[in-house]
């Protein structure tokens, strides 16, 4: 009789502990979902202000690859977290889970495409040959790995041998993270090279300097984002530590998109400053960047031959 009571008490304590853990996870994910939703609305509002500010905006300048990718990242990240949250509250979670997986993978691909467009004009100056490898990673390797991951994850809903498939998915997570790490190292190196470039040799474009500064921070966020994903899925963590890792992983995309909107705001202010001071030529926000343009030149920024002209242009910034 005592043994039965002891077993029942232990089972009751286990059920209570699991219930408390579920409630804690629910509260954390609930706040993360609301934070992401509210910040995403603010990001869209600020992005709209940036894009429609001024009188020279046309359809061509509004719907650039960078603007489209940024808007998609903000939207997909918000919808992704919403699906993730509500999939734990409905009886049939498969449709929301599938949508969550698709949005997650689409966001990953979009991040690297966006980074490619951003670094393109800087990287073709300081590491033109590396562009070939970066293009292969961004437009072939990472999308292909994401498609394979989606297929394997979907198989988990229909096969019994779940843990074998889960192991393959984890391996692919690590492979994607390795490619992400290598590509971000190259991208960050290009940004740093631009920031430390000798202004006596190259004419420094203000927009590129702003992009380089924010680019270094963005690359760091991407690296930590991928690292937190691997750590949370492969470590034997206690609940609190796992929640910290998951929270960092979930909120990192929001930080990344916020940095991109902030960067566009800084570029806009610099543009307006140059226009107000009458500095020529007009600074642009990287127009017309073909995603697979392999005609890369190693000498994009020309050597300065007239220091007086350089000082006159930079002295007004």
Description:
The protein has 317 residues and is mainly α. The chain is 78% helix and 0% strand. It is built from nine helices and no strands. The chain has helices at residues 2-52, 59-62, 65-86, 94-126, 130-155, 162-195, 206-234, 239-277, 307-314. Helix 6 packs antiparallel against helix 7. The protein is globular and about 65 Å long. Mean pLDDT is 76; it is low at 11-16 and 280-317.
Q: Would you spell out the secondary-structure blueprint of this structure?
A:
Blueprint: H1 2-52, H2 59-62, H3 65-86, H4 94-126, H5 130-155, H6 162-195, H7 206-234, H8 239-277, H9 307-314
The global form is: globular
- The unreliable regions are 11-16, 280-317
Characterize the main sheet.
Answer: none
SSE order, as H and E? HHHHHHHHH
User: In DSSP terms, counting alpha (H) and pi (I) runs of 4 or more, how many helices?
Assistant: 9
Cα Rg: 24 Å
Structural class: mainly alpha
Helix content: over 70%
Sum up the structure in keywords.
single chain; 317 residues; mainly alpha; 78% helix; 0% strand; disordered C terminus
What's a quick, concise take on this entry?
With 317 residues, the protein is mainly alpha-helical. The protein contains 9 helices and no strands. The longest helix has 51 residues.
């Amino acid at each position: 009789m005592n043994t039965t009571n002891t077993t029942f008490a232990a089972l009751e304590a286990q059920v209570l502990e699991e219930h408390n853990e579920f409630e804690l996870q629910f509260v954390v994910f609930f706040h993360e979902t609301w934070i992401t939703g509210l910040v995403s609305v603010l990001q869209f509002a600020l992005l709209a202000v940036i894009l429609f500010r001024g009188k020279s905006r046309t359809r061509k300048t509004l719907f650039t690859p960078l603007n489209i990718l940024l808007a998609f990242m903000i939207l997909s990240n918000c919808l992704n977290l919403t699906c993730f949250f509500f999939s734990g509250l409905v009886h049939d979670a498969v449709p929301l889970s599938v949508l969550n997986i698709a949005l997650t993978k689409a966001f990953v691909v979009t991040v690297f495409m966006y980074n490619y467009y951003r670094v393109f004009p800087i990287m073709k100056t300081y590491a033109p040959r590396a562009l070939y490898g970066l293009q292969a990673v961004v437009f072939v390797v990472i999308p292909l790995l994401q498609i394979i991951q989606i297929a394997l994850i979907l198989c988990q809903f229909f096969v019994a041998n779940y843990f074998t498939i889960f192991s393959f998915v984890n391996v692919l997570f690590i492979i994607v993270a390795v490619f992400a790490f290598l590509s971000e190292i190259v991208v960050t190196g290009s940004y740093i090279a631009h920031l430390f470039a000798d202004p006596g040799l190259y004419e420094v474009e203000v927009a590129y300097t702003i992009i380089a500064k924010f680019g270094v921070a963005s690359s760091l966020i991407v690296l930590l984002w991928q690292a937190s994903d691997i750590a949370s899925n492969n470590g034997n963590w206690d609940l609190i530590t796992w929640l910290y890792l998951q929270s960092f992983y979930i909120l990192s995309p929001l930080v990344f998109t916020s940095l991109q909107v902030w960067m566009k705001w800084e570029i806009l202010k610099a543009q307006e400053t140059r226009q107000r001071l009458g500095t020529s030529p007009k600074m642009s926000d990287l127009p017309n960047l073909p995603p697979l343009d392999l005609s890369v030149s190693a000498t994009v920024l020309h050597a300065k031959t007239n220091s007086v002209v350089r000082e006159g242009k930079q002295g007004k910034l």
